[in-house]
Amino acid sequence: MRRTLALVAGACTAVVLAGATAYAMTGDRTTPEPAGTAQLGRAAAPARADAAPEARRGAEAAQPVAPLPKSVGAIIDAVGRQQGGALESVDRMVGYHAESDAQTFSYPGAEYVKVHFDKLSMLPGDYVTVSDPAGTEVHRIDGDPLEVVDGLLGSRPAESGDGRWAMSVTGDTAVVTLHRAIPDPLGVQEAAGLGVRVDKVARGFSDTEQDAENARERTLSRSGREESVCGSNEARDAVCYKSADPAAYKKSKAVARLLINGTELCTGWRIGSTNRMLTNNHCMVTSSDAYDTEVWFDYQCAKCGGHSVFKPTKVWGDKVLSTNGDLDYTLFTVENFAQVQKYGYLTIETSRPRSGSEVYIPQHPGGDPGQIAMASDRDGKGICAVDDPAYDGYGEDTDVSYYCDTAGGSSGSPVISRATDRVIALHHFGGCPNSGVRIDLIYNRIKKLL
């Protein structure tokens, strides 16, 4: 397994502390210090472009490009999310009509397991838990009263994709258990049309499958799609900057991994002190998308170059408040906001960025534990900097370009000024240079909602 729950095995950057050529910055932000040269375990391989405008960005990237038609943009956006898992069809009953009140779903090597219920018809007081085998991560699901009525009437749930996802369990095994408020030794409840059924499972890729996905992406790159890792991959575990750049490390805590529809990955972040999150439009469009999105905070390595990760705090997305395809942003809220307030928030820079301004990007490339892209072998000073503050995105001059290293799953990350520690852009495109939508343009659309 690449990573498991709560300071167990994880996939973090292997950092060599001696002989380094990459740089982390000291607190005075002027003198570079060696930080490490070893490549990231997964992101070091050629990575997929985050939103794939590469079909129209190649050797001609410096030339003005007209905004894409909506139909073409939709196709490009469809490959903007990083694939991080697969769906498995199952048909398993739990309790009531089943032989046991517990069912185990195991997929050796999977990073996470996430079950979907197409039937949750339970008696009042009964509930279901989804947990890891050790019970260190437990998620509770209560029944829907309307499904109880359906069960008693003998009707079946709609076959149109209705149902409910459970929160994922980190690791390769999930245990689904029915908890009964009233024992039923005579089996009366089984005769009442009640039932709990799992119809599909989303599971995170195993290492072997992730390697195959990386190979597929390399094939795509040979077909004309450029990489988002520009030169050597110098993104590092966020914790590597805990002492070297405490401000950057603190800001990274406000950045979350997004698990969308069980198998797709993006990045999002808290904007302002209230319940507001920002990501890309190509990651999330509607409130229905938000409802099926897990937002993972504090999914970070515990030690620079180590193999353990913090237990993430997982909450559900809630409502989409504003979204726009041309500026590729979505503003949304989360459920249980109080659980994630402690991780802080980011503020934005409303003035237009300038060429040469140094930046860094906290992100979850490939869905991995939090990393920060700050060093750059494509920039003269060795630090990521704004290359073009008037770069073409879906519209003319909507973007800021840079050579910070990103990968699939980094879509929706904040691009932050090193001078002010404020967000200047919303990362969304790969292609070297990579680019993000100017945050001042987005702010004009959402300021009344913040």
UniProtKB/TrEMBL annotation:
The keyword Signal applies. Residues 27-64 are annotated as: Disordered. The keyword Signal applies. Keywords: Signal. Residues 34-50 have a biased composition (Low complexity). PANTHER family: LYSYL ENDOPEPTIDASE. This is Trypsin-like peptidase. It comes from Asanoa iriomotensis.
